[in-house]
Amino acid sequence: MKKTKIDHYTDKEALEFHNSNKSGKIEINSSKPMTTKRDLALAYSPGVAAPVKEIAKNPEAAYDYTTKGNLVAVISNGSAILGMGNLGALASKPVMEGKAVLFKRFADIDAIDLEIDSSKIDEIVNSIINFSKSFGGINLEDIAAPDCFIIEKKLKEALDIPVFHDDQHGTAIITTAALINALDISKKKINKIRVVINGAGASAIACSDLFMKKGVPKKSITMIDRKGVIYKGRDNLNHWKSEHAIETKNRTLEQAIKGADVFLGLSAKGVLTKKMVKSMEKNPIIFACANPDPEITPEEVNEVRDDAIVATGRSDYPNQVNNLLGFPYIFRGALDVRAKTINEQMKLAAADAIAALAREDVPDEVAAAMGGGERPKYGREYIIPSTFDPRLISVIPVAVAKAAMQSKVARKKIEDFEVYKERLKQRLDPSVTILQGINSQIKKNKKKVVFADGEDENSLKAAIAFKNGGLGIPILVGKKEKIKERLKEIGLSENFNIEISNSTDLKKREKYVNFLFKKLQREQGFLERDCDRLVRNDRVVWGSCMVSCGDADAMVTGNTRRYAQSLEKIKKVVEARPGEIMFGLNMVVNKGKTVFIGDTSVHEYPTSEEMAEIAISAARVVRLFGFNPKIAFLSHSTFGQPITSRTKHIRDAVEILKNMKVDFKFDGDMQPDVALDEEYKELYPFSEIVGNANVLIMPGQHSAAISYKIMKALGGAKVIGPLLIGLGQPIEIAPLRSSTSDILNLASVAAYSAGVINYNKKN
Which of 172, 262, 588, 732 could bond to 206 as cystine, CB 3.0-4.6 Å? Predict the structure, then answer.
C-alpha cells in the first residue's frame, strides 16, 4: 500500500497564515453594487421596505430576497475541539472558520461561525432557535457526547431547516459509502456480515445506526467502549449505548474480532493488533479511522493479510474516510430544495452516490484534477473518491435533492436535473482543483526547482513550503550567510536542509561561463569576461544556467525586480522553444468562471501572425490544465463594428487561423462582454464563442496587463501567472512583490511543465 509524505508546518507558520493580510479566514462581501446613491436607496432605505413587506406576508419569500437560502450557521461550544478536548467556545473559532471556508470552497455555500459560550444544553438550544430564522441550515460541530445527541434532537424537533451534526452523520455517510464498495469488492452480502465497532462516541453510534438502515442486522454489530463490549445487562450504560447493546458472550475486542468481517475504529492508536487482524474472516474490511494515528496502520495489516481492504482517516494512504466528501454537498442539495430537514433517506442517498462515483471510470480531466499520473481505478485501494474529485459537486447534491423531494421534505422542486448539474459545476473554483492536481502530480516525480531570489523573504518561504509539502527539491540562489540571516528574521532554523547555490562554486561557475560564452560570443559579441561577470553577479543568469546545463529541472524568479528585467536576463541564457512563440498567459478566476488572458508580458503589439501563433500555443497549454479551449480575439469592436485601423490585424489573425484548420474553436473580433456574457448569444447566433470564451487573446500587451491587474485589484479575481509560454526551459517569472503563495504556485507550474513538456520537441 502506497504511503505519501504528509505536509508539515510549524506553529509559527500556521499562526502567520491566520494573521496575514486580514486576521482569520473569512470575510463578508456585498453581492450587489454599492456605488451610487440609487444603489444605497435600493439596498437600504427606502428600497429595503419592499422585501420586508413581502417576507412579512410570506416567510418563504426570505429565500428569494435574502441570503437565507445559501447561508449555514457553523456552531460549537468548544467542548470537543478536534482531538484536543474541551478548550472553550472562543478557542473553537479557528476550527469553525475553517469549516466555513470548506463550505465555500467545495460547495459555494456561505457559512458564518457562531461560538456559544455555554455548557448548558437548554441555553445552547434556545440560543440557536432564537437566531435560526437567519439561516437555511445549521451545522453542529465539536460538541461533546452525549450533549450533541440531545441538542441535535431538540433542534430537529423545533426547527424547519436542516440540522446536521457532522461529527456524527458526516462520518457515518462516508463510512457507509466505503462499506458498500468494500463489500462489493470482497463479494460479501451486507445482511450476512459481522461488524465490530471500536469506540462508542457520537460518530460510532451514528455509523452503527446508518449501517443498520443500510441492511446490517443489529445483532451483527458489536460496539466496544473503554470498558469493553457493550452487551445486554451491562451496568452503567447511557441511553444511547443501551440501544446498541446485544446478546453476546464476548467481553473484549480480542474476543469480538474473531471471525468478524468488518472492523470500524473510531477510537485510539494501536488498539487493533496484527494478531487480531489474523483472526478476522476471509477478505476482512478494516476501517482504522482514529486521527492522527489509526488503530492499526495499513503496513501492519499487510504484514499478516494480503486479502484485506483498508481505509484510514489520513490523506497519505489510499481510501481516506474524510467528512469533506459529504457535508458541503449534502447541505448544497438540501439548501437547493429548501429542505425542512436532512433525513435518513437523504443520508443514504448521499452514501449511495459517493459509492457509485468510485465505481465510474475516471475521465482525463478528473484524473488531471486529482493529480494526474496513474489513473485511479475501482478496487481495494480505491473504494471512495478523492476529496478533490470535481465530479462530487454534480453528483451528491443531486442525489440528496432527489431524496428530499421523494421523502416530501423539500419545499422547492428542481424541474430539470441536467440544468441543475451544470449550475452545480459552475460553483466550483477551478483554479484550486487545477493546482491540487498539479501538486499531486509533481509529488510523484520530484523535480529540482531553482528559487533564484533565495535571499528574498517570500521566495525563501516559498522554497521551504515547496520542500515541506513534498512538491520537489528546492535550490536557493544567494549568499549563504544572507539566507541564514533571513531565516533568523522570519523565525526559522538556520540549520535547514535546502541546497544553496552561488558563484562561490568554482566548478559550476566555470561550466556556466563556458556555456554562456559559447552561446553569446557570436550572437551578441560577448567576451568571456562579460559572461563571467553575468554568471558571477546575476542570480537569474546563474539559475537559468543551472537549468540549461542540467543541474536543475526548472526555475522560478522575479519578485525582487521588474518582469521585463528578469525576462531580459533569462533570454541571454535560454532561447524560445523550437517552433513556438514566447508570450505571457494569465489564468484568471472570478465568480466561478476561469479565463486565460494573453499576451500579458512579452509582445507590446503583436502582429496578426503572432496573435495566431499565441492562440495556437495558448490552446495547447489550456488543454494541459484540463480545459477545452474556446478562443476570443478581443477588440473595442465586435465583428467589424466599428472598423478602425486597430481592428484590422485582429480580423486578419482570425482569417489566418481559419486557413490553418486548427482543432479548437475561435472567433473575433469582439468586445470582452460579448465574449464572456451569454446574454449576447441571441444577438450573434452564428458564433459558438460568444458568451462562451475561456481564452482571451488581447490586441496588445498593454491592454492584457491592464485588464488582468484591474480584475485582480478591483474585482477580487484570483490570478495565477503570468505563465511564461514558449520558452526553451521550464522557467516562470513572478511579478514584482508577489506573495509566498504566488511564488509557490509558479514553482509548482514550472515543476509540472518540466515533467509533461518535451522542451526539445518542435510543436
Answer: 172
SS3 (DSSP) at 149: helix
Q: Give pLDDT, residue 586.
A: 87
CA distance 472 to 444: 9
What's at 80, amino acid-wise? A
CATH number of the domain at 552, please: 3.40.50.10950
pTM: 0.69
Name residue 222's beta-bridge partners: 196
- The C-alpha atoms of residue 336 and residue 414 are separated, in whole angstroms, by 8
**pLDDT at residue 494 in the model:** 61
Q: Which residues contact 686 (CB under 8 A, 6 or more apart)?
A: none
Sheet of 285-288: strand order equals 228-229, 221-225, 195-198, 262-265, 285-288, 309-312
Q: What is the distance between the alpha carbons of residues 263 and 284, in angstroms, rounded to a whole number?
A: 8
Mapped onto helix, strand or coil, the DSSP state of residue 478 is coil
Looking at the structure, do residues 74 and 105 belong to the same domain, yes or no? yes
Report how far apart, in Å, the C-alpha atoms of 721 and of each of 6, 439, 448 are. Answer: 27, 16, 20
Q: Where are the beta strands (DSSP E) in 2-97?
A: 71-76
For residue 368, report the phi and psi dihedrals to the nearest 5 degrees: -65, -45
Q: Does 281 lie in the same domain as 336? A: no
C-alpha–C-alpha distance, residues 303 and 759, integer Å: 44
Q: Which helix (H) or strand (E) holds 283?
A: none
Q: Is 571 considered catalytic here?
A: no
Cis peptide before 146 (omega within 30 of 0): yes
The total domain count for the chain is: 5
Q: Are 196 and 173 in contact (CB under 8 A)?
A: no
Distance of CA 276 to the CA centre of its chain: 37
Strands 221-225 and 228-229: antiparallel
Query: Which member of 68, 93, 99, 447 is catalytic?
Result: 99
CATH number at residue 335: 3.40.50.720
* Residues 374 and 463 grouped into a single domain: no
The answer to whether 668 and 687 are in contact (CB under 8 A) is: no
Of 3, 5, 44, 593, catalytic: 44
Q: Is 232 a catalytic residue?
A: no
DSSP one-letter code for 421: H
